[in-house]
Amino acid sequence: MVRKGLRVLPIVALLLTLGLAVVACGTARGSQAGGGGFVAEPVEQRVEVVADPKGLLRWTQQQYEATAGDVTFVVQNPSPSRHNFVVEGNGVNAYSPAFGTGTQTYTLKGLAPGQYQIVCTLPGHRESGMVAKLIVK
Description:
Elements lengths: L1 H27 L17 E5 L12 E4 L2 E9 L8 E4 L2 E4 L6 E10 L2 E6 L11 E6 L1
Parallel strand pairs: 1-3, 2-8
Antiparallel strand pairs: 3-6, 4-5, 4-7, 7-8
């Protein structure tokens, strides 16, 4: 009886691990507000961020600027490549789900002065240079 229970233990451990992975992946997809850390409410201050129209793994600008406070990012993807939109640094790690061609909006409330990165974190995109600096004054 004990031996049978010991054989089931690795299966139970595997199922628990897979369950935790599914929960973590579900969280990473973001919420109705557009992703982890972003809110759905657009605000007056807008920063336009555009993915390369030819599908190259880069943003069209290497640097963006904003004023401290609430910021809505208007993210355009004119290419057929899928991307996501991430703002990280200075205690912020906001991310969107992956998106295709079109325009998305993502709002951050109370963005503090400092330097951040705007990144696409889909596999290989950051490594290929889809990174830009965001300076908040």
